[in-house]
Amino acid sequence: MRPIKGSTKAVKRAVSKVRQFSFVSLRDLLVASGPTLLAVVAVAVLAYLWVDPAPPRRLTMATGQFNSAYQEFGRQYASLLARDEIALTLQPSLGSHENLQRLLDGKADIAFVQSGSTEDAQAAQAGLVSLGSLFTEPVWLFLRESAKVTHFTDLKGKRINLGPEGTGVPRLFRQVLDANGIESNELKIGALENTPATMALLAGTIDGLVFSSAPEAPLIQMLLQTPGIKLFNFSQADAYTRRLPFLTHVVLPRGIVDLGRDIPAQDYHLIAPTATLVAREDLHPALVGLLVKSAGEIHGKAGWFQQQGQFPSPKYTEIPVAREAARYYRDGPPFMQRYMRFWLANLFERLWVVAVALAALLIPLSKIVPPIYVWRVRSRVYRWYGELRKVEQALEAIAPEEREAARAGLMQRLDGIEDSVNHISIPLAYAEELYRLRSHINFVRERVRGTIDQHGVATASLAK
User: Are residues 321 and 440 located together in one domain of the fold?
Assistant: First the structure.
């Protein structure tokens, strides 16, 4: 059966009437709350972008020389950060001092820096923070056996390579020389980089070289197993740590390199600063936690000179530890990052800032919107009271003997007002206001007709 057109139109008119006389006027509600909603959206956007901006997706790390442990660890950081879609650009460098300078110049966001390279006051003043110490970097003094160096003072007159001045080794080793009462000019100090220096040592053009690096460095692994090359034993390591507090005493155990070949053939006592991951203080807080987490995966295992879980650590660094890093070491990763991927967790954590901003704005604004809404709805009714008052004033301004002739025009005005009022769309909750207006229109109509006075008293009774 085909639907009846007339019945369909009737249904539509009924639905339209229900919409017109609903409990809440959506149009009035939107107009009343529109400025508030716009203010809320603006504050939310500002809070999202300015108060707690999204972390950058690109970072730059200053590492170290070719074939150094810094370079190898930099690759591992890049691999881990790539899982969270963060591109880490590695910048090879000469070492700690050059890395510090790149941080200060804004050319790098994070860098490996050796302890003892700076002081805490200088680092804080320069706007640098530590994300934690990562591993010990023993001072490896490799010598040719033909140099016949047994005691440290035997180095006088020897050709010893300390590396370029941009590394941390020259400054560190000069402090060791001072502790032994040896002047730098009593040695023939070279400034070759690690790989050329190693070739020079093997070729016999120098007597020794100094590294300060983790044992994972390929050159150190090679030299520990090279015949004719021996490692200097710092038998007074404890005394060095008392004189130079940023140093620690570590032991290279016998056979750790190769148990089968018994390499090394004895325990070696070494002095060691620690490698620290240093960042600019404006590094995004979310990235601080992510970097500390990555450091735990890379450096948290047991090694030649460390126990399981000893590193990374907020200790062993003279640079102030970043507040977010200290919180991570104390409490672990943020709650949401334990169960979500980095970017999703970061999004929810940032939304808390937006929620706080919205709450601070919505609480006072929620007291403003309802009165505005009520005023808008009632103003549709109240404006017609002004028209009624004009009719009454016109009636009162007419002389009594002329009112009969003016009644027709006033009645026509009242009919127009009533017709307009009958087409007012108003929520049912305020229907009482509408019906009261209609009764007042009738009241004024009776006055115009002359059946009642301005007090509503019938004129016939007054005449009696």
Answer: no
The predicted model gives 94-116 an average pLDDT of 91
The contacts found for 327-333 with CB under 8 angstroms, 24 or more apart, are 328/288, 328/289, 328/292, 328/293, 329/132, 329/292, 333/289, 333/293
74 and 172 housed in the same domain: no
Q: What is the pLDDT of residue 30?
A: 58
Residue 299 has pLDDT above 90, yes or no: yes
Dist CA 203 CA 315 (whole Å): 40
Query: What span, in angstroms and rounded, lies between the C-alpha atoms of 12 and 117?
Result: 82
What does the pLDDT read at residue 22? 47
Task: Say if 373 falls within a structural domain.
Answer: yes
Range of the domain at 167: 138-272
How does the average pLDDT of the chain come out, rounded?
A: 84
Give residue-wise pLDDT tens across range 408-420.
888 888 888 888 8
Contact 12, 345 (CB under 8 A): no
Beta strands in 12-168 (DSSP E): 58-62, 87-91, 110-114, 128-136, 139-144, 159-161
CATH classification at residue 262: 3.40.190.10
What backbone torsions phi and psi does residue 133 show, to the nearest 5 degrees? -80, 145
3-state secondary structure of 461: helix
Both tokens of residue 101? 């300078």
Where residue 68 falls among pLDDT bands split at 50, 70, 90? confident
Residue 275 banded pLDDT, cuts 50, 70, 90: very high
Report whether 270 contacts 139 (CB < 8 A): yes
AA letter at 96: S
Amino acid of residue 2: R
